[in-house]
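Please review this one:
***
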Amino acid sequence: MMKNLLITNVTIVPMTAEESFIQNGYIFIESDVIKDVGHTPHPPHLKEQAKIIDGEGMVAIPGLINGHTHTPMSILRGYADDFPLMDWLKKMWAVEDRMTEEDIYWSSMLSMVEMIKSGTTTFCDMYYGMDRIAIGVEKSGMRALLSQGIIEGDSGGEELLTETVEFVRNWDKSANQRIHALLSPHAPYTCSPSLIEKMVEQAHILDCSIHTHLAETREEINIISERHGDTPIALMEKIGLFTRHVVAAHGVYLTDEEIDILKRRQVGLIHNPKSNMKLASGVAPIAQMLDKGVTIGIGTDGAASNNTLDMFEEMRFASLMQKVSLEDPMALPAYETLKMGTSRGAAALNIVDQVGTIEAGKKADITLIDFRKAHLSPVNDVVSHLIYSAKASDVAYTIVDGSVLMNNGKLTTIDEEEVTWHIEKIKNNLL
């Protein structure tokens, strides 16, 4: 049974208003919901109703939202580095064909360990064997948007579509509504327009979102042009993909007209800066898209192409990449970047009514960062430190739905030693 929590003496960055924060504040959590946020002193009766977390020297932010992941790929971290995307994919797929359901479960659990320890509370995942990942999410206590990725292959994708529809029916809004299930055509170059049209039809029936990769590399642009005489975004617009809410990873190669489509169709674009850099995919026009009003979150992509799931590092790379590529030190400033990892990330995933800010009525997904560190001193600007200085190891508490998943640096729902033992065993058999 969930207990009430009272976080005291904490600096709060609520992400509810432009660059506002509360010094020496408190957060009262009743069951799984934030009930009150304010300045110290808190109402005296709250102490009697809750377990207290002393936030002295800490900063509270909304739980970080990793908008695009492939959690089982943590087992492939460091396996095939320094290859371009299409060559890298061939190497990945060759190993993934041999992965069992147990391999998928423990590899996804490894990713959840890393994410909880680095302050991530929500992730949006695309892979296969998704039933096992969902079981892991239930155990971990995290919030997740899960989708069974479909790569068409020779079968035409019909059997896979049937399986993924069944997954949505079985898992959507499960685990106290912490799990949302989506449909997922892998990409326009791995799924035919006719299959994607069928998936859109099912998404309307199931009332669910769609998660896909779009406009990631020049090679993808060339493939779609040769096959269909179009760009990926224009093709998806023609076949009706954007008639549902879409979470689209990457968006590196976009025309002005395509950016307008993303804005008009309210697509949630997920920026993956480190993966795009490591695979030399290119630099997404994030600053331009934000200026045009596109809703953008941040994701790590899989650990095989990143090679971490550290959202602090990802946010830092996102900001710095825009600055250097545009030769503009004012591009993508710290607060805008933090929005992409929290409130704007929630909007991109279409869950902003539940999470993404620290305010009364929202789900109690909160990350506490310990600022009593040399690299975070002196505290001249809290948000600047969060983006340009903070590390995953600075996270002290990770809270989801009012449950403490990491308590002062110690995991409470997952046995990390058990996970890493299984991972070493799997690695020796698989790689």
Q: What stands out?
A: The CA atoms of residues 209 and 217 lie 24 Å apart. The chain has two domains: 5-62+362-411, 64-348. The chain has a mean pLDDT of 96. DSSP finds 16 helices and 17 strands in the chain.
